[in-house]
Amino acid sequence: MSAVKKLAKRTATLSGFDLPFAAILLLLLAYGLLMLFSAGYAVALYRRGDAYTYIRPQLLFAALGIAAMYAASLVDYHIWHKLAWWLMGISLVLLVVVLFMPEYNGCKRWIVIPGLGTLQPSEIAKFSVVLVFSHIISLNHDRMKGFSTGVLPFALVLGAVAVLMLLEPHLSGTVLILGIGAVLMFVGGTGLRWFGAAAVLGVGAIAAAVVFLPDLVPYATSRLSSWLDPFADPLGAGHQTIQSLYAIASGGIVGLGLGNSRQKYLYVPEPQNDFIFSILCEELGFVGAALVVLLFLALFLRGMQIAVRARDKFGALLVVGFVTQVILQAVLNIAVVTNTIPNTGISLPFFSSGGTSLLMLLGEMGIVLSVSRQADAR
Questions:
Q1: Which of 167, 206, 216, 366 is most solvent-facing, going by the fewest CB within 10 Å?
Q2: Whole-angstrom Cα distance, residue 161 to residue 130?
């Protein structure tokens, strides 16, 4: 009971969380659930015999995620200082375990939990990277220009995570985590000269991957070829991109109407997941797509306002890390769907089907709200 009383006392000293941020977040979530049902019911019916196959668990995880978000907003975010390295250790163990799981579409990204479903370790790894980087930077913020504190610990963490994720292979997740890490290092004060050195090392790492990870080469080469000319193999590697572009083009300004997509009827593979944005464009047109972009932009701007008002560097870095993760992932997904970059298999936050991802995202947003509570209390 003493722990409960302590939590109640602590909560009573905090003002309310940032309502505009929460409102934007809930609008994104509601929009995402609506589009998931519309984009996914046809493929769910044809392949699983149940039109609610994707939306039913997503609604459950959304409810659990909202509860987790609210609970996280009540907890003092400084507790993550103590848990950062523990969670990173758990993430690394899970990233090793997943390599022994069955393949799905040529990748090993999910741990099967009998009776409960699947767990995607990369989602936990993203969370852990933000925690560990924020923890290290907040403790060494006045020594970030040097190599030993401003580069080495981050390089070791990112290197370990990236190698394990490339073994899956999970190129999009690797790019995303490297991007999140780079943003946090930049905001945290790492010297700019080290980013130049990192670019050189990145080229070396790609060369090493070609030599030591030969299975990754045909995987990456296929993705690159289908990006440059998807019509060269319209029934193979380029099929998904071509069907996605057809869906986007047929949407026009206002779309065909909610539920009226033609491409979701087994033309666009995985319309409920990576390519849900193309179905959204087909059904709701440029207007619906622009609304998605504006909501993500509003989330980013409000998140940065919370980061600026945070009471300490640790809180500011947590907000920057988690909001950057959402925005960078959304940008990459939209870029893939529109064939601006090669297909890397990345989901659209709050829209794509995936319980682990949704639960983790909402929990992270709860930590952002926790930071906003204490920021407003100053």
A1: 206
A2: 12
